[in-house]
Design brief:
Elements lengths: L9 E4 L6 E2 L1 H14 L18 H9 L3 H15 L8 E2 L3 H10 L3 E9 H10 L8 E5 L8 H11 L10 E5 L2 H9 L4 E4 L8 H4 L4 E3 L2 H8 L1
Amino acid sequence: MKALPKDLRYLLFDLDGTLTDSAEGILRCVQYALEQCGTPEPDAEKLRPFIGPPLLDSFQEFCGMPPARAAFAVEQYRKRFSTVGLLENAVYDGIPELLEKLREHGYVLAVATSKPEVYTLRILEHFDLFRYFTAVAGCDIHRAGETKADMIRLALRRLGLPEQEPPQTVMIGDRKHDVLGAKECRVPCIGVRYGYAEAGELEQYGADWVTDSVETLGKLLL
């Protein structure tokens, strides 16, 4: 594995599948939304592709919904997620300790996620992770169509960095959307296999580095 740039300073983290294991809450909320749409899916495992991408895109891509129907499904998803689903979640073992060490080594940390920012902040605060991050960027719950690249650019703005090809910066995430969003912003990307990517997904979409665990991510960064 090639070495990271020696002057690396800014680390942008995805949330779901990178900092927290949120599968239970997401899948249960997708199931609830599909029930409200009259198309129940009892097998939660079939819905795992929903973890990571923007919800509006997922309901259209994976369920064949037209845009208006997909928007209704997102509304139903959020009804359950905002009260129950966001805390059906757990921090990956070793993440708080890793974030602490990264801060001690002088890294500036930010979150760049496709999850609505209002939920992201609640999750980070609930799990006592918010204190590690200088900036948090999530999507606007009232605005559809924001991409992972948009979230990366927002995080960069909040860090005071240029939105295209920022120096000393890397994105860390577990899905192809993290890799593609980083590439659009000309930011290198570390892919983490312990999240929700299919086998070979991170390599296929061109992650610059791929690690298997929180421990190996720490070894790469430190």
